[in-house]
Design a protein that fits this description.
- By secondary structure, the protein is of the alpha+beta class.
- It folds into three domains: 6-113, Immunoglobulin-like; 116-208, Immunoglobulin-like (Sandwich); 215-259.
- 17% of the residues lie in helices and 48% in strands.
- The strands form five sheets. Strands 2, 3, 4, 9 and 10 form a five-stranded antiparallel beta sheet that branches. Strands 1-12-5-8 form a four-stranded antiparallel beta sheet, with no helix packed on it.
- It starts with 5 loop residues before the first strand and ends with a helix.
């Protein structure tokens, strides 16, 4: 089981704008723009964030996972910023143009600094992007590094924060870095946009493990299973016999009254 996401409070929602625009000949759309900045020490998981705002009494809801340009595993590392921009259908009476709205509310989910695995040393990390796919508007690169895990947990996934020409970027990868072991890691990374010939700098890693059941929890689960089986095998038949005896006694009493 993966590390559980937490409500993440250390963020800054930037200034916002909303505007009603035409959609075809008779339809309307409302556009919304803002930004989300991570001002904490953990990692925000963008696909699990959710924003709500109102125009008059109409509620508009946007899940970041609905953004087709957002990679499903996209993260936001400390002091990185994500631009929010989306449009949705509007059927109200407002005319075209900018519209004033109350401050939106946002639910931000992420991993806290206490969730990260400690004791992992990384040496010689490199990340260079070499290919670009215009159809999907994504670039691919290879991330490589040597690692030594002196901690007490195996790493199963990680986020890596880096800069490309001064722009902060965060990528997610799966891994298997056993505790007490060392080795080399090399995998492809995909990001949005054309990043060919760019090399990542200032790389920072955030390692995550999985939640492992402790022996006490396993014993408790086994006890619950045994009690459940006992209930089905012993208690249920006994209860059925008691109900049968009560019904039979009621029938006999009724017959005695008739006689």
């Amino acid at each position: 089981m993966h590390t559980t996401l937490s409500v993440y409070d250390d963020y800054l929602l930037g200034d916002h704008t909303a505007e009603i625009i035409a959609d075809g000949e008779s339809g309307k759309l409302v556009t919304f723009e803002s930004s989300l900045t991570n001002v904490g020490t953990g990692v925000i998981v963008l696909s699990d964030c959710h924003l709500i705002f109102y125009i008059d009494a109409t509620r508009f809801s946007f899940y970041f996972s609905q953004d087709s340009e957002l990679l499903f595993d996209a993260g936001l590392s400390p002091y990185a910023t994500h631009d929010i921009a989306f449009a949705t259908a509007y059927t109200g009476a407002r005319v075209l143009g900018p519209v004033d709205i109350a401050a939106p509310t946002i639910t931000v989910m992420g991993y806290l600094s206490s969730d990260f695995v400690e004791g992992v040393t990384i040496t010689d990390p490199t990340l260079a992007f070499t290919t670009y796919d215009a159809g999907s508007d994504t670039s691919q690169g290879m991330i490589s590094f040597a690692w030594e895990n002196a901690g007490d947990k195996t790493v199963h996934e990680f986020y890596v924060a880096y800069e490309l020409d001064g722009v902060k970027t965060t990528s997610y990868k799966q891994a298997h870095l056993d505790y007490g072991e060392s080795g080399a890691y090399s995998q492809m990374i995909t990001i949005d946009g054309d990043a060919t010939s760019k090399v990542a700098t200032n790389m920072t890693f955030y390692f995550l493990s999985i939640i492992e059941y402790q022996s006490g929890n396993i014993a408790l689960m086994a006890l619950l299973v045994i009690l459940s089986i006992f209930g089905l095998v012993i208690v249920a038949p006994a209860l059925a016999i008691v109900i049968f005896l009560i019904i039979r006694a009621l029938i006999r009493r009724r017959k005695a009254k008739v006689l």
